[in-house]
From TrEMBL:
Organism per entry: Paenibacillus albilobatus
Biased composition (Low complexity): 55-78
InterPro entries in the cross-refs: Cu_amine_oxidase-like_N (IPR012854), Mao_N_sf (IPR036582), YHYH_dom_bact (IPR047773)
Top-rank lineage group of the source organism: Bacteria
Chain spans, region Disordered: 55-93
Protein name (database record): Copper amine oxidase-like N-terminal domain-containing protein
Domain Copper amine oxidase-like N-terminal: 99-204
Protein's UniProt keywords contain Protein biosynthesis: no
Length: 209
């Protein structure tokens, strides 16, 4: 009987020693965990790490996981928030040459092609045609007159008035880099001028009285 009691005592002592060897000093809270402040590296813990003795997860692991998720989210946001390249202008320079009664018009700014329509600087064209020009900046309304002819246009609008009669033009007047451009054919037609087109050398030959 004594031999059995002695054997049981050794077994309990070994079990208790095993439990102590896998834990470390420190009182646990109501949740079965506590914060390590001494000999943390000995137990495979970080200084100040909150952990459990009952197999629960430590707060350090949660922080690392949260940090990893935050890092991934940050990388994802940086990839999706990259600025888009600026859209290319919908117009391009035109190589046309314009003549009025045999004299070439010297444009201070190059003519443009927009929506398959030749646009030319308004002021230079009007001066070459010997016409009058009015412009209402508040409404964007353009008025070109010569003799009994009057053309009325509005910046950004395809509607043009020839002596009060409205028609739809192929393109609207535009302001590009501070210069007002108008469809060449609209002004020529509105002032009762004639025009011959030489496609071989891209020239427009206007005749007007």
């Amino acid at each position: 009987m004594k031999k059995r009691l002695l054997t049981s005592s050794f077994a309990l002592l070994f079990l208790f020693s095993s439990t102590v060897a896998t834990a470390h000093p420190g009182r646990t809270d109501a949740n079965g965990g506590h914060t390590c402040w001494t000999n943390c590296s000995r137990w495979g813990l970080e200084y100040g790490e909150y952990h459990y003795h009952n197999g629960g997860h430590s707060s350090s692991g949660s922080k690392k996981s949260s940090s990893g998720s935050s890092s991934k989210s940050s990388r994802s946001n940086s990839q999706t928030s990259q600025p888009k390249p600026a859209p290319k202008p919908s117009y391009q320079k035109s190589s046309i040459k314009v003549f009025v009664n045999g004299n070439r018009v010297e444009f201070a700014n190059a003519p443009l092609i927009y929506e398959n329509t030749n646009l030319v600087p308004l002021r230079d064209l009007v001066q070459a045609l010997g016409a009058g020009l009015s412009y209402d900046q508040s409404t964007g309304t353009i008025g070109v007159t010569k003799g009994s002819y009057k053309v009325t246009l509005t910046v950004g609008s395809n509607i043009v008035f020839y002596n009060g009669t409205s028609e739809t033009a192929s393109a609207a007047p535009k302001i590009i880099n501070g210069v007002t451009y108008v469809p060449l054919q609209v002004i020529v037609k509105g002032l009762g001028a004639g025009m011959a087109i030489d496609s071989a050398d891209h020239s427009f030959k206007i005749t007007i009285k």
